[in-house]
Amino acid sequence: MSTQRDYYEILGVDKGASEADIKKAYRKMAMKYHPDRNKGDKEAEKKFKEASEAYEVLKDSDKRARYDQFGHQGVNGQGGFGGGADFDNMGFEDIFSRFGDIFGSGFFGEEAFGGGGGRRGRSRGRKEPGQPGSDMKIRMPLTLEEIAFGAEKKLKIKKQIKCDECNGTGAETNSDFETCGTCNGMGEVRQVTRTMLGQMVNVQACPNCNGEGRIIKNKCKKCSGEGRVKGEETIKVNIPSGVSNGNYITLRGQGNAGRRGGSAGALIVLIEEKEHEHFDRDGNNIYYNLTLSIPDAVLGTEVEVPTLKGKAKLKIDPGTQPGKMLRMRGRGIKGLNNSGDGDQYVRLNVYMPEELDDKQKEAMKSFKGSENFDPSNLDGSEKNFFSKMKDMFG
User: Fold this and answer.
1) Pairing relation of β-strands 310-316 and 136-142?
2) What are phi and psi for residue 118, nearest 5 degrees?
3) Is there a contact between 34 and 111 (Cβ–Cβ < 8 Å)?
4) How far apart, in whole angstroms, are the C-alpha atoms of residue 142 and residue 272?
5) Residues in CB range of 7: below 8 A, 6 or more apart
6) CB-based contacts of 307: which residues, under 8 Å, 6+ apart?
7) Which of 63, 70, 379, 388 is 20 to 30 A distant from 203 in Cα terms?
8) What are the distances in angstroms from CA 141 to CA 148, 155, 332?
9) For residue range 231-252, what is the model confidence (pLDDT) as tens digits?
10) Which residues pair with 214 in a beta bridge?
11) Cα(49)–Cα(67) distance, rounded to whole angstroms?
């Protein structure tokens, strides 16, 4: 949906709201802007769909977590973390069907509001055969290099897959189906009661066909009528650059196959960042510790340091102090959704030998009385001090 308003603001709840509070808030909004109460009101229609979009995300713990972390980018679109529904172009019947926990009881509609009209309550009917498959979660360890530049991974997943013998229908042949006699193919049964507000319609899935509207006369022998069997599939996962430990990537339709032709669930990939041999990470920046010898720190040098793209040369100026940080621009992590590239920072340390031979000790003693080695004599002119040091070691 085109809206970019905060979902919590739309429903009038805070970020710590419970699932029950979110559901209650949506019922209130849906009651206020329901199309049966606001016929022809385009603004009410917009607000009804806006509230439905917000509820679609916040009622789902995984979507809500992605929204809290990434905002609208985390739940919209098909590429990275998204896969959200397009409520702008969704009809009211589809919304009613999508939120059966809200609309399935006949809570809305002219009869529920005491309109007394002859129109029947809305019927969701059977949208598809079978029952949807369950979602799956897997963990995907990634190296810092894969995170920095993105990667394509192939995974072998053991899961429920569609039966190839019956093509997922669960029946021996297509003629082995018959319409359910209990619901007459509707997939649901209704119970109407009268209240002081009018008629209340309670709609439930048909207990005879489990909401499918049909039953199987002769079941497939390979899957015993399930329409799915245990198997293994290779799935390709595109990892965008800049993901972080704990991020989710949702692949819709890649989870367990549904029963008897039902839609497959989602595969939720949890990102785990492997510890790196050389680098520490902070956002899109990376840090590397480089230890120099005393002569290299004093005289300056050129060294090779590892980067995420291989080794690179780094110039060390004369008189480099321990703890100094050097910046290598653009050598960090490529940001998520083109949010900018990070840098590599090199922390400089100076190695102090624990043991010296006699010659080395004499050399160090020769500097002990020199004012150049007494930090209390520094006048702030580091250039003068280090030029003297360079002459001594030279």
Assistant:
1) unpaired
2) -80, -5
3) no
4) 6
5) 53, 54, 57, 58, 67
6) 328, 331, 344
7) 63
8) 14, 12, 19
9) 999 999 999 999 999 898 989 8
10) 179
11) 18
